[in-house]
Write a structure and sequence with these properties.
The chain is mainly α. Helices cover about 75% and strands about 0% of the residues. The chain has one domain. The radius of gyration is 18 Å and the shape is globular.
Length: about 290
């Protein structure tokens, strides 16, 4: 990659490693509904005007039902289930479980017939990744936390399947318009829910600041940087960010939140990343010229 490409890559790795920490801070004093609303609303306020000024919303004409479905699968459900889960499990564990998204995406694409290249290497990656997830869950959790892990599992499925909507139905739609519209839809849906679950106690400045950073930097700015990275380095190299941000989230959780560096994290983390890499490696090499979000 070019020097600019590396700068964008490093910046995005850090930016997308932050949300888990910020969500953990947010749910310490606010309901998950409020946290999600503030995240999507602040991002929508930034991205929607940009897409409107560029006239990109016209590119969604006749496709709004697919945009709405993408909004549900990429944001509405996953953002809530992840935020809800972080009330009970560490930000580090949540981030490392989400690192399994490429594996689930590979399985989903294969089952839907989008990618039929289920090679020995990819099967090996899936097995290694599942073993890693097993270590994360088996060594770190008590039975009472399994529901939270299941909630993260819902997030993983959403993150893995939503891009397929882009690839099959919105491949030539303006990316900025799609994500801006999806965020706006979610802001409208979550607004009344957040109002009824608003806090009835003073909220610390640290929480408000964390949510501002979560929405503005980690959502709005992050997508702008991501689009720039795709343009600079290509879609396949851009997706390698999946293997960087969990490590950043783990480091932040341990250093800032003083979360325990458990045996499950130490053993499971490398296995999940290795499994995700092997499970998607062939597709990434073959489809490098095919843009996706």
């Amino acid at each position: 990659m070019t020097r600019r490409g590396w700068l964008l890559f490093v910046a995005l790795g850090i930016i997308w490693g932050l949300p888990y920490l910020l969500i953990k801070v947010g749910v310490g004093e606010l309901s998950p509904l409020v946290v999600v609303f503030l995240r999507v609303a602040s991002a929508a306020v930034i991205l929607a005007p940009i897409a409107a000024i560029r006239g990109q919303f016209s590119g969604l004409r006749g496709r709004w039902h697919w945009v709405a479905l993408f909004a549900v699968m990429e944001i509405m459900i996953p953002f809530f289930t992840l935020t809800w889960a972080e009330q009970r499990i560490s930000s580090s564990l949540a981030a490392l479980l989400v690192a399994a998204v490429p594996m689930v995406a590979a399985i989903t694409a294969w089952r839907l017939g989008i990618d039929d290249r289920l090679t020995g290497t990819r099967i090996t990656g899936l097995v290694i990744g599942l073993i890693g997830v097993g270590f994360l869950i088996g060594l770190d959790l008590g039975g009472g936390d399994l529901l939270s892990v299941a909630a993260v599992g819902v997030t993983i499925v959403g993150y893995a399947t939503a891009p397929l909507i882009i690839a099959r139905k919105l491949t030539d739609a303006p990316s900025m318009a799609v994500i801006a519209a999806a965020l706006t839809i979610n802001a409208v849906v979550y607004a009344p829910l957040a109002w009824f679950s608003r806090p009835d106690h003073p909220v610390s400045a640290n929480v408000w600041l964390s949510l501002l950073v979560l929405g503005v930097l980690c959502t709005a700015v992050a997508f702008i940087v991501f689009f720039a990275l795709i343009s600079e380095a290509g879609p396949s190299r851009a997706t390698l960010i999946t293997y960087v941000n969990p490590a950043v989230a783990l480091l932040l959780g341990v250093v800032i939140l003083h979360e325990a560096l458990t045996a499950g994290l130490i053993i499971g983390f490398p296995l999940v990343l290795l499994g995700s890499y092997l499970a998607t490696r062939r597709a990434a090499l073959i489809e490098e010229s095919e843009p996706h979000m």
